Amino acid sequence: MKKQILILGAGFGGLWAALSATRLLSLHGCHDVEVSVLAPQPELRIRPRFYEPNAHQLFAPLGELFDAVGVNFISGTAERIDVEPKTVAYRDALGAIKTLTYDKLVLATGSRLALPDTPGVAQHAFDVDQIEQAMRLEQHLQRLVDLPESKARNTVVVAGGGFTGIETATEMPARLRAVLGENAEIEVIIVDRGSKIGASLGTEISQSIAQACEALSVKWRLQTTVVAVDEHGVTLSDGQRIEANTVIWTTGVRASSLTAQIPGERDAFGRLHVDANLQVIGQPDIFATGDVAYAATDDLGNHALMTCQHAIVLGRHAGHNVAAQILGEQPIMYRQPKYVTCLDLGGWGAVYTEGWDRHVVLTGQEAKALKTQINTVWIYPPAANREAAWAAADPMIPIVV
């Protein structure tokens, strides 16, 4: 009977783990190990782009790619991991509960936006965390033109001034004018607890964010939070009221809840602590990658963030190392010392930085061209060609960005 490597999740971490694992097994001529991916659908959802329009198109099918490299795809959603018997219970496409066994497990189930219990958020706020939620927002924006003209109709409140909040807010003026007309008086407001614009991202990059927001007329309400949402707007922690028909929530991302089912230490975001080979500490047969892994990128105290930039490289290493463990080969230590940021800033352009202190290298349209290249080419999966896919999955290839 073949040994089983089971990968939970088909996001960036899961996809690249599958490609890397099958690559190493093929290099060793190993045919008695099966690599399976369990996920709701055989597609990579391009989550970093969900703030854009046409969210329903922001995915890449994986069926032919998996067939090309010999990955067994299983359609379903993992619900329970039992470490001792090495089983995973999942719900299939028809709703039936089934069970899979594994010899080695790679957890790559990503992260989700955890909406707070703030009154009205669940009922009245939108988000761009998943394709379905992004489509719901898009449909809402398209319907605004049918409402009577008012300040609330033309106002968008974005809760949270982090990466997602900034990219979403700076995209909104163009999206609203595409619906309401070029001459519509639009108001987009970011509500953030920070003391300065983009403060959480660093001093240097925040200057570019401030310039872009000024050019786009995106406003900030600083040192405050949204404490209530209703169908007509929001109430802030300082008592102010903003009338708005559109409220977008962007704060509170946490690792998949499945991490809680694996004994081990977790960080504040629920990510499992892993060693340099991405093996969950204390679990010899379980690896974690992507947004569920708390992994050191270097020896200076930096750790991978919940970004595709890190998930792709984490996936390559996790897949290689889980296969290496079965083969009795030496693992390849995960290290990713180069860290960059490319933040989209709507019609103003973008800002590209290097280093953990986010030193600004490119801004405006020059950075926008790079951001477009990243978003439309570099983060997409390789073609359904075995040799090309395996070449791209080598954990030792140079990191482009």
UniProtKB/TrEMBL annotation:
Domain of life, source organism: Bacteria
GO molecular function: NADH dehydrogenase activity
Keywords in alphabetical order: FAD, Flavoprotein, NAD, Oxidoreductase
Domain FAD/NAD(P)-binding: 4-312
InterPro entries per UniProt: FAD/NAD-bd_sf (IPR036188), FAD/NAD-binding_dom (IPR023753), NDH-2 (IPR045024)
Pfam families: Pyr_redox_2
Protein name: NAD(P)/FAD-dependent oxidoreductase
Organism per entry: Pseudomonas helleri
Source taxonomy: Bacteria, Pseudomonadati, Pseudomonadota, Gammaproteobacteria, Pseudomonadales
